[in-house]
Design brief:
The chain is mainly α and about 110 residues long. It is about 65% helix and about 5% strand. α2 packs antiparallel against α3. It starts with 6 loop residues before the first helix and ends with a helix.
Length: about 110
Amino acid sequence: DRSDPLEPLRRRLERLVLGGRATLPVSGATAVEREAALLTRRMMPTGAQLLRQLQAAASVRERDVRGAAKRSDPSPLVNAWLEAGAYERAATSKLFRIQWASRDTGG
């Protein structure tokens, strides 16, 4: 499979920027877990872990005493997004370097 090995993480990061916390709903945890498992199979265990952390941070919902949702502190989600984004950029750069090196050696 020559597809982008980071595609599941990259797609979730982009969707989060475009649609916010709602793009990682608690009800979507099963889909995120499937994507994390795919990253693991693609030898990207750190990406899988960061995707799970992103889901966990997005799933935090604070409630008031009546049970109504209240505005959550965005810091955990922002930090998870930044960490996952930094990893995605570094891993993409590494994959490009590997690809170029294999072209230079004829592999």
